[in-house]
Amino acid sequence: MVEKILYKEESYKIIGACMKVHRGLGSGFLESVYEEALEQEFKVAGIPFERQVKLNIFYEDRKLKKYFIADFVCFDKIVLEIKSVKYVPVAFLSQLNNYLAATRKELGILVNFGTTSLTYKRIVNTTHSR
Q: What is the pTM of this model?
């Protein structure tokens, strides 16, 4: 049985844009630099996005007062968090997983620009995925 990859085409476009930015800038800049460059690249690539998006958090079907700010939400359904660190701690993956569960988004992508080769990880919210 072949497993379907959640938002495969959308993810491919997002990662491709991230790779292009990484090739152009290299590693070592602050996250804010990559964020600004990605905004430009998303526009060029025709990727719909929102930057610095306030995402509501829910607990037992009730919206909490607390929220978190996502670096990007692309295609109105994929949370994109960018980092620029030498090593990605497990805590970053757990944090993105928690964001997905709390906001009921199905897919998150954590991208790290802080190494010589771009690294990324797709996180699927199994609690609320189709």
A: 0.89
Q: What is the per-residue pLDDT across 21-61, written as a single tens digit (0 to 9) for each? A: 999 999 989 999 999 999 999 999 999 999 998 888 888 88
- For the chain, which domains are there? 8-124 (3.90.320.10)
Tokens of 119: 């690294």
User: Which 3 state secondary structure label does DSSP give 29?
Assistant: coil
Name residue 106's amino acid. Answer: E
| Per-residue tokens: 76 | 């109105």
Rg (CA), the chain: 15
- Please tell me the distance from the alpha carbon of residue 49 to that of residue 51, in angstroms, as a whole number: 7
Kindly tell me the number of DSSP H helices and DSSP E strands found in the chain: 3, 5
Q: pLDDT of 75-90, one tens digit each? A: 999 999 999 999 988 9
Helices 8-25 and 31-45, axial angle in degrees (round to 10): 120
Sign of the four-CA dihedral 117, 52, 98, 8: negative
Fill in the amino acid letter for 129. S
